[in-house]
Design brief:
Radius of gyration: 22 Å
Strand content: under 5%
Structural class: little secondary structure
Number of strands: 2
Number of helices: 3
Distance between the termini: 24 Å
Shape: elongated
Order of helices and strands: HHEHE
Helix content: under 10%
Length: 302
């Protein structure tokens, strides 16, 4: 039986269930995957059915209503989901690399341990998502809303975050190396034990953020705001912070610098032993076990 996840399904008629069973029987082959994705029941109560796996390369799902859909262990590489509604959806342990989620709504979605390498979330809404342990290498989040997101142990190496809102996010042990994050709002976020090395953070807002144990070496921070940021054992060795705002002697006195650290006038950094900078980050969550039976999304375009 195809699993169905919508409170409206309680109103299904016997006829609707029979129609669903017949359709499933007719479309049991892998070649029918995309047909399933485009098929929609006339009964509005059966407008959505849920995936628990499956594979569909280059699927066209733009503008679809996929609220609450569950893609567990699925492979939807290079899919197009521009402007789709994925609020509360579960994309756990799935592969969406190379997919286009631009302008999509993923508020409250679960993206844990999923692969979004080279995907595009430009101007998408991801407020409150849980993407713990996800791979988002070179992923584009330009002007996206990631406020309040759970991003623990996420790999964002080379990602584009320019102009995005990441305020109040949980970003412990995140890889932010080589990112482009000009003008990004990190205010109030916990970025402890994260790697920000060689990133472009010009004009970024780190006010009230927690940067304890984070690594800032080699990054560009011209015009960045560090007002009231926590910087206990933050690695600023060789980092140029001379044209930042909001830094105080108390903050940089708790960080770890060296002779190559550049600070605003009248501030000085202390040197730390390398061993004191070694902090064990939390382990990322394990990917979920794919279900035994795999059904594919049936989505209405209504």
């Amino acid at each position: 039986m195809t699993q169905i996840a919508s409170p409206l399904i309680r109103r299904l008629t016997t006829a609707s269930l029979a129609a669903g069973a017949a359709m499933a029987a007719l479309m049991a082959t892998p070649a029918a995957a995309e047909i399933r994705l485009q098929y929609g029941f006339q009964d509005r109560d059966v407008a959505r059915m849920v995936s628990l796996g499956g594979s569909c390369n280059r699927c066209e799902l733009s503008g679809r209503d996929l609220t609450g859909a569950a893609f567990h262990g699925a492979t939807f590489t290079n899919a197009t989901l521009v402007g789709s509604d994925l609020r509360g959806a579960e994309l756990m342990g799935s592969n969406f690399s190379g997919s286009d989620f631009s302008r999509a709504d993923l508020d409250g979605a679960t993206l844990a341990a999923a692969n979004f390498t080279d995907s595009d979330f430009s101007r998408a809404s991801l407020s409150g998502v849980d993407a713990s342990g996800a791979t988002m290498v070179r992923t584009r989040f330009a002007h996206a809303d990631l406020s309040g997101a759970q991003l623990v142990s996420v790999n964002l190496n080379g990602a584009i975050l320019s102009g995005s809102d990441v305020s109040g996010a949980e970003m412990v042990a995140v890889t932010l190396a080589n990112v482009s994050a000009r003008g990004t709002d990190f205010s109030g976020s916990d970025i402890s034990m994260s790697n920000l090395s060689n990133g472009d953070f010009r004009g970024a807002d780190f006010s009230d953020a927690t940067l304890n144990g984070a690594r800032l070496t080699g990054g560009s921070f011209v015009g960045a705001n560090f007002e009231d940021a926590e910087m206990n054992r933050t690695d600023i060795r060789g980092t140029d912070l001379s044209r930042t705002h909001g830094l105080t002697q108390e903050q940089v006195g708790r960080a770890c610098g060296d002779a190559g650290t550049r600070l605003p006038r009248n501030l000085s950094a202390r040197a730390c032993r390398v061993s004191s900078l070694r902090i064990t980050p939390p382990r990322p969550p394990a990917p979920p076990t794919p279900p035994r039976r795999r059904n594919l999304v049936v989505a209405s375009s209504d």
